[in-house]
Amino acid sequence: SLAGLLLLTSFLLHVEEGHANPTRLVCDNRLIQKYIGEAKDMEKRVGQCQALPTLSCPTVLPLVDFSLQQWKSKSNETKRREILCDLALLVSAVAEAHGQVTQECGAKQLSQLYRHANSFLLLLQTFSWEAGPWEPGCSTRSMEQTYVTSIFLTYRQLVQGKLRFFFHDLARDLCK
């Protein structure tokens, strides 16, 4: 889709020599607001799909709620790793759900969600940090869910919550 291509292009514009430069991405607050808006739109559109089936095999979704007080006490690297774990679990859940949803509207929305969530996952993996590259191995809090709409809700909450606050924290350091 055109929107997916534009999202990927905007991410790629921030990548230099194999490492993302988060400065331009996080310093323009309009960008994260755009991603939040897209997450809300996807959630709304999947809610409008007719006769969306319940998943026969539940997907495992990350619990993305968090305490702002605890969040503020974490290092940016710890926050990044936590978001990467949440995104990896979410991308996996979207792929599993996509394999179970044959209804066109739901499958189309899941494909779009997969592209968006996977783009964020790839982007955060390429940010250059002193700690080195991200390696999978997560122990994130999770829950099983059989409703496709829950996957979209989780993504919106992740973008609106942890990801937005993470970008805000990075902006404080990078956008002086």
TrEMBL record:
Q: What compartments host this protein?
A: Secreted
Q: Which residues form the signal peptide?
A: 1-20
Q: Lineage of the native species?
A: Eukaryota, Metazoa, Chordata, Craniata, Vertebrata
Question: Which PROSITE patterns is this protein grouped with?
Answer: EPO_TPO
What InterPro entries does UniProt report for this protein, alphabetically? 4_helix_cytokine-like_core, EPO/TPO_CS, EPO_TPO, Thrombopoietin
Query: Of which family is this protein a member?
Result: Belongs to the EPO/TPO family.
Primary localization: secreted
Molecular functions per Gene Ontology: cytokine activity; hormone activity
**UniProt gene name:** Thpo
Q: What is this protein called?
A: TPO protein
Can you supply one Gene Ontology CC term for this chain's record? Answer: extracellular region
Q: Which SUPFAM superfamilies match?
A: 4-helical cytokines (SSF47266)
GO BP annotations of the record are: cell population proliferation; positive regulation of ERK1 and ERK2 cascade; positive regulation of hematopoietic stem cell proliferation; thrombopoietin-mediated signaling pathway
For this UniProt record, give its keywords in alphabetical order, as a comma-separated list.
Disulfide bond, Glycoprotein, Hormone, Secreted, Signal
Q: Does the UniProt entry include the keyword Disulfide bond?
A: yes
